[in-house]
Automatic annotation (TrEMBL):
Highest rank taxon of the organism: Bacteria
Official protein name in the record: Delta(1)-pyrroline-2-carboxylate reductase family protein
Length: 310
């Protein structure tokens, strides 16, 4: 069994192959070749939960299974620890042979950003930036990397929880050779940026106002009914002017942003339903996460020449 640390896991999940693996997994799902039970969330301690997320391919589609076992502790950054800790185990489905052990936080960051990237390719009216990112954590960095490396976005505006966190994040981006500035006026940033990503701890609304007609808003941080990032009035406005797409069917009862806005979630198409880009209005892509995306990451790694062939 190959064991990948965080750096090796990142190298094994380049954007283009990972997006392709996501697309293939969605096609296999539509053909009944994928099983992905809804995740189990078990309380371990106060404000700390254990997530168990299995998914697998039929033998004809790839004979592959993956299970992610991670803990999520929202207060961990204050302790000097990552909010997400854990692993993804990749096995051959027919035999149970262990193929790889991947770093869970790295898989989560890269596959989440890659799903957003896939959605932007399909749905964004103007997928060229500038990009406004709200949040300064791991997911924010992964999304900036995905949008700049894979979409060619060359201008990034940052809104952090505090001015200091925003400045520190822009300095990190500068070290990667990117143009980045702190967005001190969010209303102005919304008018400048057609690409917007919210990736905060989702403990309070972080985005309100009015987005452009050609905006693509990816709301990443909220993944339970009690979590929220978007002002409900903003969510309703996008739904009325454009379209709302969710990453998976489970988001219909997990997406706090959409629930708070009172949307009829059965009207929201999933990525598996292959929604088409509309010819007018903004797009809201609501991502709550799914074992489907971990399985796609496992496919990406399993097809590497470093692992035994199937």
């Amino acid at each position: 069994m190959m064991v990948y640390d965080a750096a090796a896991t990142a190298r094994a999940l380049p954007w283009a192959p990972l997006v392709h693996a996501i697309e293939r997994t969605l096609l296999d799902l539509a053909q009944g070749q994928v099983q992905a039970p809804e995740r189990w969330v078990l309380p371990l301690a106060t404000d700390t939960s254990w997530f168990l997320m299995p998914a697998w391919l039929s033998a004809s589609a790839g004979d592959l299974a993956a299970i992610k076992l991670i803990t999520y502790a929202a207060a961990n950054p204050e302790r000097g620890l990552p909010a997400i800790l854990g692993d993804v185990l990749v096995v051959r489905a027919s035999t149970g042979e262990r193929l790889a052990l991947l770093d869970g936080p790295t898989v989560t960051a890269r596959r989440t950003a890659a799903v957003t990237l896939y959605a932007a390719h399909r749905l964004a009216p103007r997928p060229v930036g500038p990009l406004l990112v709200i949040g300064t954590g791991v997911q924010a960095l992964a999304h900036v990397a995905a949008f700049t490396e894979a979409l060619g976005v060359d201008e990034v505006w940052v809104s952090g929880r505090t001015p200091a966190s925003g400045r520190a994040f822009t300095q990190t981006l500068h070290q990667h050779g990117l143009f980045a500035e702190v967005a001190t006026d969010l209303d102005a940033a919304l008018q400048r940026c057609p690409m917007i990503v919210t990736c905060t701890p989702a403990q309070a609304v972080c985005l309100r106002g009015t987005v452009r007609d050609d905006a693509f808003v990816a709301a990443i941080g909220a993944f339970t009914p009690a979590m929220i990032e978007l002002d409900p009035a903003l969510t309703r406005d996008i739904a009325e002017r454009g379209q709302v797409v969710i990453d998976s069917a489970a988001a219909r009862h997990e997406a706090g942003d959409l629930i708070a806005a009172g949307l009829t979630l059965t009207d929201c198409a999933t990525l598996a339903e292959q929604p088409a880009r509309q010819d007018r209005g903004p797009v809201l892509f609501k991502s709550c996460g799914s074992a489907l995306w971990d399985l796609a990451a496992a496919r990406c790694v399993a097809e590497s020449p470093r692992l035994p062939t199937f």
